[in-house]
Amino acid sequence: MPPVLPDTSQVEKAITELLREEEIGSIATICADGTPSAATMHFASDGLAVYCHTFTYTRKYAALKNNPNIAYALAHTPPEGFHGRMKVRSVQVTGRATFLTEQADIEHAIDVSREQFSWLQDSNMYDNFKREGVALRQVFFRIDPVTALWADNRVHMLYRTLVTFTPDGKNVASLAPYDTKAAA
């Protein structure tokens, strides 16, 4: 009997849970000369949107100022490694990055980060964001998802599906089979 495949609401819930459980992933940006650049980041999620923090002197900042198209990947690998392979799940997202400039948006990103990461509870890492008139070298950006590849071995080994999000990035709009011939 074939496995029961998840519907859009189940995939949306699973992606949202992964984004809340996993803290560190990688982003990919495109530099001004067209070359790709990857970086490891902390991700704080608010539904399907994620917030990242960086500095204005980084190459990812320069790349995103030039081109807001971005991709990221997050994965859950069970502590038992290979023996836990039926619990592996991951998401590879393409999206658009927006730098936060409104104080209310920045405060929201800080709140989401502090809620998700216990190590931030007693940190003053983001205090500069609350000081008026300070020329900040730190910035937050939000990534709104456009498309994704969702992989979830809990459904069945090597289960993959292509995900399209609603235009506002707040929900999963549709799922499509992952065709390895088309991906090659």
TrEMBL record:
<dbReference type="InterPro" id="IPR011576">
    <property type="entry name" value="Pyridox_Oxase_N"/>
</dbReference>
<keyword id="KW-0560">Oxidoreductase</keyword>
<dbReference type="Pfam" id="PF01243">
    <property type="entry name" value="PNPOx_N"/>
</dbReference>
<dbReference type="GO" id="GO:0016627">
    <property type="term" value="F:oxidoreductase activity, acting on the CH-CH group of donors"/>
</dbReference>
<dbReference type="GO" id="GO:0070967">
    <property type="term" value="F:coenzyme F420 binding"/>
</dbReference>
<feature type="domain" description="Pyridoxamine 5'-phosphate oxidase N-terminal">
    <location>
        <begin position="12"/>
        <end position="127"/>
    </location>
</feature>
<dbReference type="InterPro" id="IPR052019">
    <property type="entry name" value="F420H2_bilvrd_red/Heme_oxyg"/>
</dbReference>
<dbReference type="InterPro" id="IPR012349">
    <property type="entry name" value="Split_barrel_FMN-bd"/>
</dbReference>
<protein>
    <submittedName>
        <fullName>Nitroimidazol reductase NimA, pyridoxamine 5'-phosphate oxidase superfamily</fullName>
    </submittedName>
</protein>
<dbReference type="GO" id="GO:0005829">
    <property type="term" value="C:cytosol"/>
</dbReference>
